[in-house]
Amino acid sequence: MIFCTAYDDHALPAFRVNAADYLLKPIRKEELSRALGRAQERLQRQSPSEPVSTRTHISARTHHGLELIAVEDIRYFTADQKYVSVVHSGGTTLIDESLKQLEEEFGDQFLRTHRSTLVAAHAIERLETDDEGTFIHLRNCSEGLPVSRRHLAGVRRYLKNYSSA
Predict the structure, then answer these.
(1) Cα angle at 136 between 130 and 140, to 5 degrees?
(2) CB atoms < 10 A from the CB of 161, how many?
(3) What is the pLDDT of residues 149-160, one digit of tens each?
(4) Collapsing DSSP states into helix, strand and coil, what is residue 101?
(5) How far is CA 97 from CA 14, 25, 63, 90, 148, in A?
(6) Which pLDDT band holds residue 20 (cuts at 50, 70, 90)?
(7) Cis ω before 51 (30° cut-off from 0)
(8) CA angle, 120 as apex, 114 and 123 as ends, to 5°?
(9) Cβ atoms of 54 and 70 closer than 8 Å
(10) Considering only CA atoms, which of 92, 76, 62 is closest in space to residue 137?
């Protein structure tokens, strides 16, 4: 990712999300060429099995401006109609990405437990079944999240493989 903007005050957040470069307008050919070269070098260093995304943060537009939420601080994503919320150590924030996009990008870090929920694998504490259904419990979350029957076998398989790894 290369940021191109007229404002220099966003450079630090840009590099926090692993930007290849940050260019200020007006952009000269030499600067753009150098930035593209850096981006190409990064792509060539990646092995084919590595995911293309190396995002360490999710961005959200809030009343404070553009906020960055560290992926490691995220407990789960939940969808309600056309809105997706990210529940993280700092609270809950609406984001402009779909669960499908998030699952495709972060599928190795998040587990689908319901058609409307992706949970952070690192935050899973236990799976529990009672008269109300099956729930996945996360560290530092007071209540369990429902696991749908459709996703239950995959969740159990994941947890079994995770515990033996």
Answers:
(1) 120
(2) 9
(3) 999 999 999 888
(4) helix
(5) 19, 28, 18, 19, 22
(6) confident
(7) no
(8) 115
(9) no
(10) 76
Instruction: Please state the pTM of the whole predicted model.
Output: 0.66
Q: Rounded to an integer, what is the distance from CA 91 to the centroid of its chain?
A: 15
Closest CA to 61 of 32, 27, 17, 97: 97
Q: Which residues pair with 95 in a beta bridge?
A: 84
CB atoms within 10 A of CB 77: 25
Q: For 56-148, where are the alpha helices, taking DSSP H only?
A: 99-106
Model confidence at 11, in pLDDT bands (50, 70, 90)? Answer: low
Greatest mean pLDDT among 12-21, 39-48, 59-68, 72-81: 72-81
Quote the tokens at residue 114: 């319901």
